[in-house]
Specification:
Layout (H helix, E strand, L loop, with lengths): L1 H6 L1 H62 L5 E7 L1 H4 L6 H11 L6 E7 L5 H15 L3 E5 L15 H11 L1 H36 L5 H4 L5 H16 L6 E4 L1 H11 L6 E3 L18 H13 L3 H14 L4 H13 L3 H14 L4 H13 L3 H14 L4 H14 L2 H14 L5 H13 L3 H14 L4 H13 L3 H14 L4 H13 L3 H14 L5 H12 L3 H14 L4 H13 L3 H14 L4 H14 L2 H14 L4 H13 L3 H16 L4 H17 L2 E2 L1
Helix pairs in contact: 5-33, 7-9, 9-10, 11-12, 11-13, 12-13, 13-14, 14-15, 15-16, 15-17, 16-17, 17-18, 18-19, 19-20, 19-21, 20-21, 21-22, 21-23, 22-23, 23-24, 23-25, 24-25, 25-26, 25-27, 26-27, 27-28, 27-29, 28-29, 29-30, 29-31, 30-31, 31-32
Length: 686
């Protein structure tokens, strides 16, 4: 049968068709495998999503059990909405403390405060859950604190199916995880591309020479080696790099200079200028780099007078020699001649607008001169030129911090930690400090804890963690942290101050006073214990002692403007208004943008019932350029108390305008939408 089958032409066609059937079966199997793999991936992602949501649900269930336990339909119900600053803290969270404080006042009304804060939530999600929360808890008042987690991707709320679908996908934990991984991969690729020119140059160097270091390269006079020098320098210039050749014989200097153009300051001769003979020799094109090298040697040794002399001797012969100008500018910075340094660095940038090192120098000068807006501009430019320049981000963050632009400082310092491979402890401490100043103690605690994971027992991180715990009401934890600090660092004035605050909060003023005094004795130039001990004295009606303490602090630290604010406040309590006004105005001479000085001055004028001075203060606030809703609110309240309704309305409006500047458009829209919903239902919004 087999023979007949093969000889039959028709059957032969059938035989040829069989491999095609097998191919179809293989294709079908492949499709099934792909479908199976795809289904497996989806199922794995689903399980991952469920797992992450369950962990979040466990945390929320504790909050929900507490809300159910404390619910009472006859009580005046306040519902608190917000992010981690609302959600976290347990019995020390602000909603829990608010309920306790209100009920302690025995106002004849029972208060029930519901905590519906959720960590990491955006304003759009708050609104999306609002309807269900209102129906479930039927609150008489809603307190809202949202917007911290909003960014440029935050959506404006819409009561539509399309909005809910988009919000659902945006809230997926797996989506957020993939987004984080993607961002980290992009960052890694960006860093790789940043270092590629250096690796390419190193490869080119190895290809064009058999020598392992620069010094060995030029031992001899072969023409091919001179050619190698030219290739290396030109390649470096293509990548924007500068090469320094050590011990380069004079015979090569001229030829290399002709090949590469402006290379004079990058070439050193074999016969180096020494510290002993530089005054005897005249600067010329062949030895100019030796002089510059010598100037920087003096600079590193902190012999700034000799460094200045060397750089000036170069500039007498070559007034436009840029490395000598830069060196002289840096010497002036160290000598405190900041204006002279500014002139030099600006001159260099005018001629060399892409010289990154000089941007750094000039930005540092502006920071020291406290010309912070100019410093910000410089470091922004440097960051644009070098997106991976960590030091530029650090300096920009410092400028923002000093200007009080804390959200901007937070973003910049977060970027520093993101870019940094080693994660310098100073960067953790800077970011933790910003969160602390923003009163975001949850995140400051988180950052300090991360720092301690990498740098166990670091003093600054331990102290920051202790103060973060104090501010969250975790008093015993804070006490243990500060005691640990003192066991390792017995002279820590911050730990003594932290313990003093702990004792103050535990109604042990005598022990608190003892600890504050110990902190001051360890470091008389540490201002915090002066502030806190003076406050303790004021609480005990020891106003004269508070005034003497603050005056002693000012005598030691005459530029610490916060002490002037406190002292002015004490004099106001003592009704010594003339001295209070004098002290507060002195503080404003030192720092014209410090809000508490204006606040204390406004209180001083209101106590004296001097409306004409309130007018002057309002103008002074406007002239200062401080974008503060609180200051304008202070002025508005003062006018309102005087019955000057039009003036009050003017400054209330100004305060509202500045308050709106805090939010991005979507956040602002979501706030307005939330207010509309609550107004319709007759629910008070705070």
């Amino acid at each position: 049968d087999k023979g007949v089958f093969l000889r039959n032409p028709t059957k032969r066609l059938i035989v040829k068709a069989q491999p095609s059937n097998r191919l179809k079966m293989k294709k079908t199997a492949l499709k099934k495998k792909i479908l199976l793999i795809f289904t497996g991936i989806l199922f794995s992602l689903f399980l991952l999503e469920i797992g992450m949501r369950l962990s979040g649900a466990i945390l929320l269930s504790r909050q929900e059990r507490f809300n159910k336990f404390s619910s009472d339909k006859d009580a005046y119900t306040i519902m608190c909405l917000g992010e981690s600053t609302t959600a976290r803290g347990g019995k020390y969270s602000y909603p829990a403390q608010l309920e306790e404080i209100l009920n302690e006042k025995n106002l004849g009304i029972k208060f029930n405060v519901i905590n519906k804060g959720k960590e990491g939530i955006e304003s759009s999600s708050v609104l999306n859950c609002l309807k269900d929360n209102l129906e479930k808890y039927e609150p008489d008042m809603v307190i809202i604190m949202m917007g911290v987690n909003d960014d440029c991707g935050t959506m404006a709320y819409e009561d539509s199916f399309d909005f809910r679908v988009r919000l659902f996908f945006k809230k997926l934990r797996v989506y957020k995880l993939i987004k984080t991984i993607s961002r980290n991969l992009k960052e890694k690729l960006r860093r790789e591309s940043f270092y590629k020119p250096y690796r390419d140059f190193a490869t080119l160097f190895r290809q064009n020479t058999n020598y392992s270091n620069f010094s060995a390269l030029f031992k001899g006079r072969a023409g091919s080696r001179r050619f190698d020098v030219g290739i290396i320098i030109k390649s470096a210039q293509n990548y924007g790099l500068m090469v320094f050749f050590l011990n380069l014989p004079q015979v090569y200097a001229q030829e290399v200079s002709q090949q590469t153009g402006d290379c004079s300051s990058a070439i050193l001769r074999e016969e180096n200028i020494s510290k002993g003979n530089f005054r005897k020799q005249e600067v010329n094109r062949s030895n100019i780099a030796d002089f510059i090298k010598l100037g920087y040697e003096y600079f590193k040794e902190k012999d700034f007078g000799s460094a200045e002399m060397v750089f000036k001797s170069v500039l007498e012969s070559f007034p436009s020699e840029r490395l000598a100008l830069q060196g002289l500018g840096r010497v002036y910075v160290k000598q405190g001649l900041l204006k002279e340094a500014e002139i030099i660095f600006k001159k260099l940038l005018k001629k060399y607008p892409d010289w990154k090192a000089v941007y750094k120098d000039l930005g540092y000068v502006y920071n020291q001169l406290e010309e912070l807006e100019a410093a910000e501009k410089i470091f922004k430019k440097l960051v644009q030129m070098e997106p991976d320049n960590i030091q530029a981000y650090r300096n920009l963050g410092y400028s923002y911090d000093k200007r009080g632009l804390l959200p901007e400082a937070r973003r910049v310092y977060s970027k520093v930690l993101e870019l940094s491979r080693e994660k310098d402890i100073k960067d953790y401490l800077s970011l933790g400090s910003i969160y602390f100043k923003q009163e975001d103690y949850v995140n400051s605690e988180k950052i300090y804890s991360e720092a301690l994971d990498k740098y166990p027992d670091n003093q600054g991180a331990l102290e920051g963690l202790g103060f973060s715990c104090l501010r969250q009401g975790e008093l015993e934890i804070a006490r243990k942290i500060f005691e640990k600090v003192l066991s390792i660092y017995p002279d820590s004035e911050e730990a003594y101050t932290g313990l003093a605050v702990y004792y103050d909060k535990n109604n042990n003023p005598s022990q608190a006073e003892k600890m504050f005094k110990q902190a001051i004795s360890l470091n008389p130039r540490y201002s915090l214990p002066y502030h806190r001990l003076a406050s303790l004295y004021v609480d005990q009606n020891r106003h004269q002692e508070a005034a003497e303490l603050l005056q002693r602090g000012i005598d030691i630290m005459p530029r610490t403007y916060g002490l002037y604010s406190d002292l002015g406040g004490v004099y106001t309590i003592l009704k010594d208004y003339s001295r209070a006004e004098k002290v507060l105005k002195k503080g404003l001479e030192i720092e014209s943008k410090y809000e508490p000085l204006y606040t204390a001055l406004g209180v001083c004028y209101r106590k004296q019932d001097k409306p004409e001075k309130i007018d002057d203060l309002a103008q002074r606030i406007i002239d200062s350029g401080i974008d503060s809703d609180r200051l304008y609110g202070l002025v508005a309240n003062a006018f309102y108390e005087q019955g000057k309704i039009k003036e009050a309305e003017k400054y209330y409006k100004k305060a509202s305008e500045y308050r709106l500047n805090y939010y991005n458009p979507s956040t602002l829209y979501n706030y307005q939408k939330l207010k509309e919903i609550l107004d319709e239902k007759g629910i008070q919004l705070v």
